Structures are given as C-alpha cells and as structure tokens.
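Data card: per-record layout.
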Amino acid sequence: MTVDPSEIEAWLKRTGYPFEMQVANAFRQGGASSVSQSNYYHDVTTGEIREGDVLAQWPGSVSVQLEVAIECKSPTTPWVIFTDRHEFDFPFSLRHWLDATPQSGMTAELITSITDQIDEDSLPLLSLVRFPGYGVTEKKNEDKSRSSGVGSAYDAVRQAASFALGLSRRYDQAGQQMPNAIGLLSFPMVVTRSPLFECWLGIDNEPKVQSVDISSVHVYLGSPPQHLIVTICNESGLTKLVKACDNMMQSLSRSSASMTR
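The structure for this 261-residue chain is written out next.
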C-alpha cells in the first residue's frame, strides 16, 4: 500500500503534533539549553504515568536546576481567566511566585538569598504574570454535538501543574538527579492556540473582559495539596513569553551562581 506523504502532512495539520513541535522549537531557539518532548512522570493525583508535552531546561548553577514544564493545546476555543487584578493592586512578588512553583531542595534561606540579588523590575515575565487568576474556563460551543473540548482549559492547567510537580517529586526520589545541583525549580506553563481573555467584576458590578496574550492562574493540586501558579500563553504571545522566560532564567542562574563564589 502506497501512501502519499502529502496525506500524512494533511493529517498532521489536523492534530496537535505540529503545534507541540513548534512550541518546543520556540524554546529551543529562545535560549533553553535543553528541550525535550514526550516526558513521562507520575500524576500526583492519580499516581498514573502520564506524558508531558515539552520540557525546557536552562543551565542553572551548582545551586539550582531550572526548567519549564509545558503542556500544549491546539484547539482554538476561547479561554477565560477569572481575576481580580484590574480592581485590586496586590501584585505577587518574585518570592511569592517562587514559593508557588514546584521545587525540590529549595530552602527558604536559599530562595531568599536568590531573590535578594534580583531586581524584580528587570524581569519582564514577572510583570506579565504578577496577578494570577483564581479560575479558568472556556467558551463552550453552543452546538452540544461539538462539545468534546469542554473542560480542556481547566484540564490543561492542572496537567501542567501535575507535570511540573511530578518532575520535582521524581527529582526528590532520585536523590537529586543532577549531581551538582542542590535545588530544582520547575515552572508549569500552558501554550495554546486559543484566544485568551481575562474577566473581572467592574465597579458597576458587571463582568468586564479584556483580550490578553499571556496570563496566569492559581491551581490547588497534589497530596498534600499546595497552591501553584501556572502561566498561560497563546500563539500571539509565545515569542514574548520565551524571551521573558529566558531573561528570568538567566537572572536566576546568575544569582544562584554568585552564592557559591
């Protein structure tokens, strides 16, 4: 049986595989020292072995290993992140964000030593995710026969959180897989083709909606459960996200390296 390669190409375009490859390539070209796809981990809720889409790692230091655990979603149903950011000006600091990041071997003293050396205003990623939302959903298609994607936004952020948390716990169990690292920070992210919107309640007590390219949301996951922050980005914001992520990783790497001198 002869199959024309163009048939395979056409089929692939209808799946999420090319998008995952494109996201991996964006991080590979954006400064990550290592990018791999199809990474396996134990789901922290079910204990089952699951597959994470993309793992991007940066050259940390002898103190810290840095990585980003990424879930890729190709459906284009609009996603909505619920937030209070437009009404309440209580941004999370870098310390708050790191405390809500899956980690291994990161003591409070180590995180403090790292954050004390970084100018938060120089981290573009932090400014993009400084007001994490409290929930995420998607605009459901009114045609019930086409509702297979219902819940994918909620599931995606939990998958990314479980991916990062699973990697950090595997790192613990392996007795620190990186022999020269004493800590691990694993940032969960979702990259989607879906349009993103933030929603908040205005002073007129009516919902307000704004289109965004990058946002973030709190996830409560694990056993024992813990609060995590998951960054969400769409195609339009991917280049900006990768650049901001590389900037932050380089800053964290430099600050952790200086601790060993």
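Known properties of this structure: The first helix runs from residue 5 to 13. The radius of gyration is 19 Å.

See the next section for split statistics.
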